[in-house]
Amino acid sequence: MNKNVFKIFVLLFAMFCWQNLNAQGNAVQILEKVDDVMNAAHDQEVTVRISIFDRRGNESVRELSMIQKGSDKRMIKFLSPADQKGIAFLSLPNDNLTMYMPAFGRTRKVAGHVRNSKFAGTDYTYEDMEAKRYLDKYNPRLLGADDEAYKLELIPKDLEKSEYSKIHVTVRKSNFYPLIVEYFDKRGTAAKKLTSSDIRKIGEYYIAYRTTMEDLRSGTKTIMQITNVRFDGNLSDDLFTERYLTR
Amino acid sequence: MKNFILILVLFLTINSISAQTDSLQPEQSAPSFWSSASDALQWRGYFMAETRFNVYEKNKSFNWQEYRLSLTPEIKVGNKSRFYAEIWARSLRFPHVDNYLSLSDKTMVSPLDIDLREAYFDVYDFIIPGLDLKVGRQRNAWGTADKLNPTDNLNPYDLEDIWDFGRHLASNGISLSYYVSDFTLSTVLIPVFNPSLAPDASLISLIMPEVDFPETTIFNNNLMYLKYRQIKDSLILPERTLENSVYGFRIEKPFGVFNTSVSYMTGKDFLPAPFKTQIVPAVIQTDTITIDVHSDLTFSKLQVIGADFAGSVFNLGVWAEAGLFIPEKVTNKTQMQLMGITLMEQDSIVIDDKPYIKYVGGLDYTFSNGSYLNFQYMHGFFHERRLDLHNYMILAFDIPLFNSKLKIAPCNSFIQFKDFNSIKDDYAFVVMSELNYLGTDNLRISLGSRIIEGKGKSNFGKLKNHDTVYLKFNYSF
Q1: CA–CA separation, B75 vs B116, rounded Å?
Q2: Which of A136, B18, B326, B403 has the fewest other C-beta atoms within 10 Å?
Q3: Hey, are the CB atoms on A247 and B477 less than 8 Å from each other?
Q4: Is the pLDDT of residue B82 over 80?
Q5: Which of A35-39, B217-221, B369-373, B437-441 has the lowest mean pLDDT?
Q6: Contact at 8 Å (CB) between B232 and B177?
Q7: Does B312 contact A at CB distance below 8 Å?
Q8: For the segment A180-192, what is each residue's pLDDT rounded down to a tens digit?
Q9: pLDDT tens digits along B6-24
Q10: pLDDT for the residue numbered A17
Q11: How far apart are CA A84 and CA A60, in angstroms?
């Protein structure tokens, strides 16, 4: 009797481990596919209209242009409003973020303390705006799935650097595009929610034309609406340099 | 404006040559949205209105009024060249009529000036890939510290507004930057030296070195007191030769999350120094001689070797910058003559040729609520020389309120002292509080104050009767 109980226990434990490992493996595979979908284009160039809403619903608008090559090189340049035009950011691998302020005529590396602060008054932080592959930054775990979507929990590999304790990502099964990203602060409280909508397929690539970032604590939100997009324009590597940042 | 037109014509000529060479080269990929938007001439700018009021009880009056329209035309031709200019049209300060007739002079009743701050063109990949050329009236900002840069010595200082730290005039010159691997090699040539712009007469003492004139002399074996009636000077600009040109080079390289650079420049000291002084007795009484003094001043040679870095350590932004200043020796020959007889003759060293170092180090941090802290320690303000180097501790702290629609800087301040042991007797302490309204895009309204305390010989301490409140509007378009 005791032997049978022991065997059943071992079997259940093995099943549990297998299932857990399998889920873990699935989570990695799912996130890998998410990364592949998000960074499928060799390079991309977009212009974005940003609407920032305060808690009373008052709107202020910015426009920026962004170029990206692969999954880890990105440059952002403000086109409007006038007092921010020309401000630019260059995001390179290994947390290498450089800012250019035209008023000072100088570039400057962005220190760690700035990464967690608001990006140009939006509800995004500099960390949110970095070019990255999720799998390089987070360890995933599969929380569950329904007919249409997977739900993953991502834990930052470097908790010190990240402002988040975890992220929940809802991934559409049909195309592995992340629909909802929920960010949790260090205390484990839901802090922000990113919703992607108007997802279109341009050639072979998926892109969300509209993303809404809500700050659940302050009641503010930021809507990014893509107004122009171009994929695989064969952008030169030389563009992702401080030399080009200042032009 | 002549310079502006000349540079524009030169730009268009070189641009056409550059366009011809482009057609021989394979097309390079560039972001289409950026370049297509900028092929036409674009105008940007801002309008700024600022009024300052001296609140010191014995001196209550408006002491600054500036209405500035800044216009910046820019043309980018593809990804190969760019023309840029910044023009200020300003009504600065107050009417300065001094007689009845001057009331009919518009320039005196309502002074307005046009200032070509910058006008230059860039040609990218000039002759060889990676080489950028910039020609025209340009600002070459060197150094990585925050506004206070001991290695930023190519362009003369613009001290018209002494509270606008780090402001420089642009210089007419040519610069080349070569980007190879991670390195950026830059060189700048400013053929003709241009002196710095000093503050107006009421504040010029701030940057003038103190000169100790003798109080007595021996005349006919009698001790005579000296009374100064007139002190005049003549400023002699360096000859416009290649020897007197300002030039420099700089090598930049990033190391991980640090930007670093080393630099060298040779040019002229920002402030003139006397090399010949004539003392002429005008009236001789029983125990007093009334005298006139005339000094000839010139700008001595100065070389600066610089090094700087800026980056991130433990989430803090950090930077440091140092310049080794190598001055040229200047000796002042003082002569006192009466009816052809030399009563006194002496040589004194005004600037010695011993090198000295100016440096600045700083850090900044942004808190989770968006508050921003910036601290800098500086040894040697731009106009100070070896024996007169002061120390400055500068603090800035901004707190955003109401979703960053308001920004308050309650305790921005700095303290100046020469020696920590004698700080009680020789210091300046300035508190600069400011409230900023940023509720509307492109608009900034600032209400602020500067409270100044000082003792001893500190420069800013001399301004202790200049406590000021100000209101500033800035609209960008």
Answers
A1: 17
A2: A136
A3: no
A4: yes
A5: B217-221
A6: no
A7: yes
A8: 999 999 899 999 9
A9: 554 555 455 544 444 444 4
A10: 53
A11: 13
Contact A235 B31 (CB under 8 A): yes
The distance of A182 to chain B (nearest Cα, Å) reads 19
Specify the pairing of strand B273-284 against strand B330-338.
parallel
Report the alpha-carbon distance of residue A180 to residue A211 in Å, rounded. Answer: 9
B157-191 pLDDT tens trace? 999 998 998 899 999 999 999 999 889 999 999 99
Cβ neighbours around A159 below 10 Å, total: 12
Q: Judge whether B460 and B391 are in contact, CB under 8 Å.
A: no
Q: With contact defined as beta carbons under 8 Å apart, do B304 and B322 qualify?
A: no
Asked if A107's CB is within 8 angstroms of B33's CB, the reply is: no
Please state the domain extents for chain A.
22-245
CB distance B79 to B59 below 8 Å: no
Please report, as a single letter, which amino acid is at residue A108. Answer: R
C-alpha pair distances (Å), B288 with each of B171, B295, B344: 48, 22, 16
A157 pLDDT more than 50: yes
Q: What is the mean pLDDT of residues B384-389?
A: 89
Distances, alpha carbon B412 to alpha carbons A90, A98, B372, B376, in Å:
30, 26, 11, 12
Tokens 């506004």 sit on residue: B147
Cα A207 to Cα A200: distance, rounded to the nearest angstrom:
6
Classified as helix, coil or strand, B273 is strand
Report how far residue A244's alpha carbon sits from residue A37's, in angstroms, rounded to the nearest whole number.
Answer: 28
Instruction: Among A72-81, B8-17, B199-208, B420-429, name the one with the lowest average pLDDT.
Output: B8-17
The secondary element (H helix, E strand) that includes residue B167 is: none
Half-sphere exposure of B14 (CA within 13 A, CB side): 23
CA distance A45 to chain B (A): 7
Find, among B126, B125, B195, the residue nearest to B156 by Cα: B195
Is it true that domain A22-245 has CATH number 2.50.20.10? Answer: yes
Residue B169 backbone dihedrals phi, psi, to 5 degrees: -85, 150
The lowest-confidence range among A17-26, A110-119, B409-418 is A17-26
Mutation test of the interface with chain B: which of A47, A83, A245, choosing the one with the most B Cβ atoms within 10 A? A83
Distances (CA, A) of B207 to A96, B157, B203, B458, B468: 41, 12, 8, 10, 20
**Spatial separation of the C-alpha atoms in residues B336 and B338, rounded to whole Å:** 7
CB B107 within 8 A of CB B90: no
Q: What are the b/e assignments for B326-341, b being 16+ CB within 10 Å?
A: ebeebebebebebeee
Q: Rounded mean pLDDT of chain B? A: 88
A3-17, A58-72, B19-33, B274-288 — which is least confidently predicted? Answer: B19-33
For B183, phi then psi, to 5°, come to -90, 145
Instruction: Give the H/E segment covering residue A5.
Output: helix A2-38
User: Span B413-433, mean pLDDT?
Assistant: 92
In one-letter notation, the amino acid at residue B43 is W
Collect all residues with Cβ–Cβ distance below 8 Å to B213 and sequence separation of at least 6.
B226, B228, B293
- The Cβ-side half-sphere exposure at A119, using a 13 Å CA radius, reads 24
Residues of B in Cβ contact (< 8 Å) with A228: 33
A116/B310 Cβ within 8 A: no
